[in-house]
């Protein structure tokens, strides 16, 4: 009797980028890194709490600071002092780099079910919240103060100061305007204990357990102006994905966020966290222009460098084009400016998982509140969204393939 045919594997969308390779490199890099996480947390807390000095004062001490930087290594105080004096694009870039920013998911990871968490991202302003010395301050990605307020977070109000004066907490949040709530999507530090080098799985556990130790989730009051709430986080199984994608939430959704369970908190863009959107879970899948309308051609925001090159916000940046000196001078542009360009589909090629753009058409400058240029993964996601988007069915297929691989491994081990 012939053996029964093997079950067919679900269709799996072929990869169009090198995202998986970079994920593997990122995990290897974090395992070999031995940074002082406690010092990083202290420096970040100090700089976020510090009110920027006036431009004149910053200029007055500029030469002195440069001399000190040559003489000695940066201390925590040095980092905070330098950060407080940054202005314009430099300030936006520095503060933006303190937040762990997701790449856009252009390929479904091969082990979604076993290695990833998923949750619905609240719509709103991404920010870092620091509570210390009887005060709570939230800063947006461009470094500007969003709110300065009393809270029920540890040492977050004059009424609730406990432990040493240096004790502080740093939360990665999204402020949801409709219900005036800070939704916590990650935790960097709690009562002075740094979580930089802890896995995402552990950080999510702490968010839920530590928040319940305070009254930060209570309705607003005199000493607690805004409510804090943890977002529901799921294992990225078929059930978890469905709950995040279709389940009800107290906030407006803006896509899904995926976190690799083993990922440490890494400032800047990382492939170990991913954002994905479609029309069902987000109002904003394809970027709009200054009028809030979807343009006929893809738009891309790039940063102008000293040599005229136009680059993404990645580290290292990806070069998508350049401007000649005559155009730069005529348009009164300078290095660090963020510029918006239109991209024609026929000018785009995908080579070894990277976009290559043959022609960029200058459109103008984006909103001044914009913190940084688009990333390469966002450009690729937007390109795919207009042509052949990564759909929820592709994510389901990836999870089903992962499940079949695990079942096959279990059968082999039993044999």
TrEMBL record:
The gene is LOC101757848. GO terms for molecular function: RNA binding. Functions as an U snRNP-specific nuclear import adapter. Involved in the trimethylguanosine (m3G)-cap-dependent nuclear import of U snRNPs. Binds specifically to the terminal m3G-cap U snRNAs. Residues 63-72 have a biased composition (Acidic residues). Residues 40-51 have a biased composition (Low complexity). Belongs to the snurportin family. It comes from the Eukaryota. The keyword RNA-binding applies. InterPro entries: Snurportin-1, Snurportin1_C. One of its GO terms (cellular component) is cytoplasm. This is Snurportin-1. Residues 1-76 are annotated as: Disordered. GO terms for biological process: snRNA import into nucleus. Its main location: cytoplasm. It is found in: Cytoplasm; Nucleus. It comes from Setaria italica (Foxtail millet). Keywords: Cytoplasm, Nucleus, RNA-binding, Transport. Residues 98-273 form the Snurportin-1 m3G cap-binding domain. Pfam families: SPN1_m3Gcap_bd (PF21974).
């Amino acid at each position: 009797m012939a053996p029964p045919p093997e079950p067919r594997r679900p269709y799996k969308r072929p990869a169009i980028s090198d995202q998986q390779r970079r994920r593997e490199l990122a995990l290897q890099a974090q395992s070999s890194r031995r940074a002082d996480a406690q010092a990083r947390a202290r420096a970040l807390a100090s700089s976020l709490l510090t009110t920027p000095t006036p431009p004149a004062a910053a200029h007055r001490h500029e030469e002195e600071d440069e001399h000190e930087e040559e003489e000695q290594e940066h201390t925590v105080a040095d980092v905070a002092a330098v950060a407080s004096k940054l202005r314009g694009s430099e300030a936006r870039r520095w503060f933006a780099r303190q937040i762990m920013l997701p790449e856009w998911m252009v390929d479904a990871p091969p082990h979604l079910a076993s290695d990833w968490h998923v949750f619905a991202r609240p719509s709103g302003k991404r920010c870092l919240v620091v509570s210390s010395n009887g005060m709570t301050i939230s800063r947006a990605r461009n470094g500007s103060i969003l709110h300065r307020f009393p809270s029920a977070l540890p040492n977050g109000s004059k009424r609730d100061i406990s432990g040493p004066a240096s004790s502080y907490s740093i939360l990665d949040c999204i402020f949801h305007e409709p219900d005036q709530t800070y939704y916590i999507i990650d935790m960097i530090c709690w009562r002075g204990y740094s979580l930089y080098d802890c896995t995402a799985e552990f950080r999510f556990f702490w968010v839920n357990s530590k928040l319940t130790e305070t009254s930060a989730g209570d309705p607003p009051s005199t000493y607690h102006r805004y409510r804090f709430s943890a977002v529901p986080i799921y294992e990225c199984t078929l059930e978890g994905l469905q709950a995040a994608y279709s389940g009800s939430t107290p906030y407006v959704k803006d896509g899904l966020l995926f976190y690799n369970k083993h990922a440490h908190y890494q400032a800047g863009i990382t492939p170990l966290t991913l954002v994905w959107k479609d029309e069902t879970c987000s109002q904003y899948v394809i970027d709009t222009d200054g009028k809030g309308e979807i343009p006929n051609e893809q738009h891309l925001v790039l940063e102008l460098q000293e040599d005229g090159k136009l680059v993404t916000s990645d580290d290292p940046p990806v070069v998508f084009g350049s401007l000649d000196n005559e155009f730069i001078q005529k348009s009164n542009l300078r290095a660090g400016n963020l510029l918006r360009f239109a991209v024609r589909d026929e000018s785009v090629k995908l080579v070894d998982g990277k976009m290559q753009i043959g022609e960029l058409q200058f459109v103008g400058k984006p909103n001044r509140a914009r913190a940084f240029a688009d990333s390469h993964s966002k450009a690729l996601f937007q390109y795919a969204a207009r042509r052949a988007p990564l759909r929820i069915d592709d994510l389901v297929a990836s999870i089903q393939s992962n499940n079949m691989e695990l079942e096959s491994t279990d059968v082999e081990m039993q044999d």
